[in-house]
Amino acid sequence: MWDNEVLLRNIANMLLACSLIAVLAGAGYYLMNLPGLFPLHNVSLNTTPQNVAPERVLQVLRAEIQGNLITVDIDRLRRSVEKLPWVRSVNIRREFPDSLTVQIEEHQALARWNDSELVNLQGEVFAADCKQALPSFIGPEGESAEVARRYAEFSRQLDTLALHVTQLVLSPRHAWQVRLNNGVVLELGREDVQQRLERFVAVYPYSLQTGNDGNVARGSVAYVDLRYRNGFSVRRAASGKG
Q1: pLDDT tens digit string along 103-119?
Q2: Residue 182: what are its φ and ψ, rounded to 5°?
């Protein structure tokens, strides 16, 4: 092999090329990390958040920024901002010559979850302070997306009656219970829940509707059990005395 002039020449050329690449890579790394090269001067939000204070976002970013425009750890910045309440996702991009632009997607609250957290439109649970009047979802851990999906289905079915779900409960055995804005509680059970709710929607205007104010009054329907194959049972509000 050592007598093969062509092979030796090829090996030498390969070693020279590798050495040159290593030198260029080292020089590039050194240049990219020079403090005066591509310094970061601006961090901006491309939209104004509704529930997150812009000043708080910028404060977090400025505390986490290390390096210049090229070497700054974008993933680290994104994870830091996503820890803020109401922040669902963050996109950060470099803008030459000296800026970062931040786009924030906020959670949109759909309901309260187990009286302690919130559920967004995607069915994801998050923690944040919220003064808004929201329906209540109650269910096992990990089932928030299913509860949100059923809420949308039930709401569409009830729209024709101008009724709204104020509380939706999924039991550990996956049975459904619905409380309406007029106070009526519907027991739907585990099977054929949409068909059972359709049965309620069909008969409500004729035999179950509450008083003129739409609220459960004494003697009116308070509870409807729809878990029967061909019918339902009704419990009326206590009439009291006087």
Answers
A1: 999 999 999 999 999 99
A2: -95, 5
For the chain, list the domains and their CATH numbers: 42-106 (3.10.20.310), 109-236 (3.40.50.11690)
Q: Cβ neighbours of residue 217 under 8 Å, at least 6 residues apart?
A: 210, 211, 237
Note the pLDDT tens digit of each residue in 135-150.
Answer: 999 999 999 999 999 9
Q: What is the pTM of this model?
A: 0.79
Among residues 141, 95, 93, 91, the alpha carbon closest in space to that of 114 is found at: 141
Is the separation of the CB atoms in 151 and 179 below 8 Å? no
Task: Please tell me the distance from the alpha carbon of residue 158 to that of residue 107, in angstroms, as a whole number.
Answer: 26
Closest CA to 178 of 152, 160, 143, 141: 152
Query: Angle, nearest 10°, between helix axes 144-158 and 193-203?
Result: 30
Cα separation values, 94 from 16, 42, 72, 101, 228, Å: 35, 10, 9, 7, 61
- Residue 168 near residue 149, CB atoms below 8 Å: no
- Please state whether beta strands 221-225 and 233-236 pair in parallel, antiparallel, or not at all (unpaired): antiparallel
Percent of the chain topping pLDDT 90: 64
